[in-house]
Design goal:
Number of strands: 0
Strand content: under 5%
Helix content: over 70%
Distance between the termini: 42 Å
Mean pLDDT: 83
Shape: rod-shaped
Largest sheet: none
Number of domains: 2
Length: 263
């Protein structure tokens, strides 16, 4: 998700709501004789609003898992997930008066902090890594198709070497070229060294250089596929932290609310 001018309204509304909530919390903290507490009317209001925004942010995962749920546009949900999820953090802090009373509350705030930080980190990755991928992987392909593309490239390289049998060159040079391919190029086709081909050009006659150039192009495409896989893993690895901890946060937040209201 690229953070561009389409986020200005969301950022502005979020900032406005934050400053309104901050002003209300300051007045609440100053005028409360015993200090701000989560069980007061204003404290509960902050808590309910914060948890509601957390549920809204969490609903994005439900919408992705069940595509038949077509409530609103996906981009709108993504922007709301980012900005309103971010706003929920200070609201929950205002709810508790910046005090972590009890082990459950402390655990909730620790989870909340990790979820927010991982979410910001993921948003930054989603903003910048597509640009890096476009610059470093001009031959980008669909991620799920990479194994199939790699197999095609290996087959193309093998056929290219077999086709050198038709080139008018000494038989010994053809054998040497094939042996060089099998020994030095084919084993490293998955991750070929950048400087692999320059010294090889001195080892074969000029008539075989076009075939060697084609093999170098195939290896370059393989390098770009490897780079794409690494960037893809960076782009999605943060979800391994963000998603399960978000689910745990919502569940424990519901437990906290139930216990607070019941007892």
């Amino acid at each position: 998700m690229k953070i561009d001018q389409t986020h200005r309204l969301w950022a502005g509304v979020t900032a406005g709501l934050f400053f309104v909530a901050l002003a209300a919390y300051i007045a609440f903290a100053v005028w409360s004789p015993s200090g701000p507490r989560g069980g007061s009317a204003i404290g509960l209001t902050f808590g309910i609003a914060g948890y509601a925004l957390m549920l809204y942010a969490g609903f994005l995962g439900v919408r992705k898992k069940f595509p038949v749920i077509r409530i609103g546009r996906a981009q709108t949900w993504m922007r709301g997930h980012l900005w309103l999820g971010l706003l929920s953090f200070p609201l929950i802090l205002f709810h508790g008066g910046f005090a972590w009373r009890g082990p459950l509350t402390a655990l909730l705030m620790l989870l909340f902090f990790i979820v927010i930080v991982s979410g910001i980190f993921g948003a930054a990755l989603q903003h910048y890594l597509p640009r890096v991928m476009a610059a470093q992987v001009p031959m980008e392909t669909i991620y799920e198709e990479i194994p199939h593309v790699r197999a095609q490239l290996r087959e193309e390289a093998d056929q290219l070497v077999e086709a050198t049998a038709q080139i008018d060159v000494e038989y010994d040079d053809k054998v040497k070229f094939r042996e060089m391919y099998q020994a030095k190029i084919r084993p490293v086709l998955e991750a070929p060294p950048v400087e692999l081909f320059q010294p090889l050009r001195f080892a074969v006659p000029a008539s075989l250089h076009p075939a060697l150039d084609d093999l170098e192009n195939i290896c370059e495409e393989q390098r770009q596929l490897n780079r794409q896989i690494k960037l893809y893993h960076w782009l999605h690895a943060w979800l391994l932290v963000h998603v399960p901890l978000s689910v745990a946060l919502l569940v424990l937040g519901g437990v906290h609310a139930f216990m607070a209201l019941r007892y």
